[in-house]
Each structure stands twice: as structure tokens, then as C-alpha cells.
Design goal:
The chain is an alpha+beta fold. A hairpin with a 4-residue loop joins strand 8 (168-171) and strand 9. It is globular. It contains 10 helices and 10 strands. The protein has helices at 2-8, 43-49, 87-97, 100-108, 116-130, 135-146, 190-200, 206-213, 219-242, 246-264; strands at 13-16, 24-29, 32-38, 56-61, 67-72, 76-78, 157-159, 168-171, 176-178, 185-187. Strands 1-2-3-5-4 form a 5-stranded antiparallel sheet, with helices on one face. A 3-stranded antiparallel sheet has the order 6-8-9, with helices on one face. It holds the Pfam family APH.
Length: 266
């Protein structure tokens, strides 16, 4: 943490904030509380300006080229799974997906749109390389390929790509934020919408939630939702295979079976 003392000085109390990279910290001094991160994306400044993440206080570049960002530490909590049905979630996701500023910034950072064809190519190669002899995996790949003509979408927006309830933070004054943008992509908004609806909201309530978001649930959107949900389940299976976690692998095989059955019985 020497780099933090260089930036802040020794009078700040610094504690790790957790996370996968180990490059995030909390800093406190005389009632001031900051969330510090090393080498956040330049995207963070636009997210802050749009009110989508807690306010960015300052950015500093170190002599070694590292960039340190400091945000106000949010006093609040993560959303509970049942709260994902809220209108505030639908409205913030719509704001994100319709933000020209976010889209322009990701384009300037060199992000290329994620298309169904390119995703399937990567997944198919990974599955073929591993040589899985699992009927659910084979069926999932075949269905995803078969439905490619039905899931093309010209609407390319900024997608968060990990809309888990743990990434939605509600402040003490009821301001909602969506954090952890490391996986953001330019893609079909159904990537975010599908995962959120499938895992958190009863299908009977999809139409009402989508009205809050600003979309009508039609056949094309429904097909895209299930396509991306199945894709995410397959990706999760591959991730746990790489981690050699047999229990989670089997859990995802079961999820894939359930999703396939839902698609076939629609």
C-alpha cells in the first residue's frame, strides 16, 4: 500500500476494500471517507458525471503510470434480490442503455460491439477444445447456433454485463447506483435485461417491469432474452470448469437443462 501513502499521506487510515484485483481500498481521515482504486477505466469519469456511480472526487497519475481514482465512499447497502423488481432499477438501467455519453466513451476506448455471431464462435471453440460429452452442453450450443438468425439486433448500447443484485447500491438518501464496470461492453441491451429478468423477476411480471424500463415484451425480445440467459449459463459452466469446481459445474448443467426446457415449452 505504499503507493496509497504516496498519494494521501500517512495521516489517512487505509483498509482493503476486497474485490478480485486487490487494488481497491477505503481511506478515512477526520470524518472523510474515500473509496480508492488503482487503474480504473477512464470510463469511470463519465459514469460519475452521469450519476451512475458514486461521485468521483479526484484522479491522480503516478510516476510509474498507474492512475489512482478516489470516489466518495457510499453510505448505504446492496439491493436485496426481491428489490430488483423495483421501478428505480428499471429506470436506471434504461438511463444507462440510452446514454450517448457512455457509448461515445466506450467507442473512444476502442471497444468493439459484441455480436451474437462472435460470441458463439468463441463459446463453440472453447467447448470443442474441451471435448465435453455432456448432452445439455451439446444441445445448448446447437440451439444457440440455430437461433442466431432470430437474435440479431441493431440496437447496440453500453451493457454492464454483470447486473447481479450485489452490484446495485442504494445510498442512505435512496440514490441508486450500479457499480463494478470492469466488464462493460457495447452490445444488445437484452444481455442485461435478460439476466435481470430471468434470475430476479417472475415471468408474469416481465411485461410490467419492461414498461417501467420503456420496452414492450414481444416475441423478438423474448427470444433474445432466453438466448442470452442460456449463453450466460454456458459461460458460467465453462468458467467453473476452468476452476475445476465440479459442484458448481453440475449446478450449471442443471440450470442449462431448465433453461432449455423453458425455451422448448414456450
Amino acid at each position: 500500500m505504499n503507493w496509497l501513502e504516496q498519494v494521501l499521506g500517512s495521516e489517512w487510515k487505509i483498509t482493503p476494500a476486497g474485490g478480485a484485483t486487490g487494488d481497491a481500498y477505503f481511506a478515512t481521515k477526520e470524518g472523510q471517507e474515500l473509496f480508492l482504486k488503482r487503474n480504473s477505466s477512464p470510463f469511470l469519469a463519465v459514469l460519475s458525471a452521469e450519476g451512475i456511480v458514486p461521485k468521483l472526487v479526484w484522479t491522480k497519475r503516478m510516476e510509474n503510470g498507474d492512475v489512482i481514482t478516489a470516489q466518495h465512499r457510499l453510505i448505504g447497502r446492496e439491493l436485496k434480490p426481491k428489490e430488483m423488481n423495483g421501478q428505480n432499477v428499471a429506470e436506471l438501467l434504461h438511463k444507462i442503455h440510452r446514454s450517448k455519453e457512455l457509448l461515445d466513451m466506450l467507442r473512444r476506448l476502442g471497444k468493439q460491439p459484441l455480436t451474437p455471431n462472435s460470441i458463439i464462435e468463441d463459446i463453440w471453440q472453447a467447448v470443442a477444445f474441451e471435448g465435453f460429452d455432456i448432452p445439455e452442453i451439446t444441445e445448448a450450443i446447437e440451439l444457440l447456433v440455430k437461433q442466431l438468425p432470430n437474435v440479431q439486433c441493431n440496437d447496440q448500447v453500453v451493457c454492464h454485463c454483470d447486473v447481479n443484485h450485489n452490484n446495485w447500491l442504494l445510498s442512505e438518501d435512496n440514490q441508486l447506483y450500479l457499480v463494478d464496470w470492469d466488464g462493460a461492453m457495447i452490445a444488445d441491451p437484452a444481455i442485461d435485461i435478460g439476466i435481470l429478468l430471468y434470475w430476479y423477476i417472475d415471468e408474469a411480471d416481465w411485461t410490467e417491469w419492461l414498461l417501467s424500463y420503456g420496452l414492450e415484451l414481444d416475441e423478438h425480445l423474448t427470444t433474445r432474452i432466453y438466448w442470452y440467459v442460456l449463453l450466460q449459463a454456458l459461460t458460467s459452466f465453462l468458467w467453473y470448469h476452468a476452476k475445476e469446481n465440479e459442484k458448481e459445474k453440475q449446478n450449471w448443467v442443471e440450470h442449462i437443462r431448465i433453461i432449455l426446457d423453458k425455451i422448448k415449452n414456450r
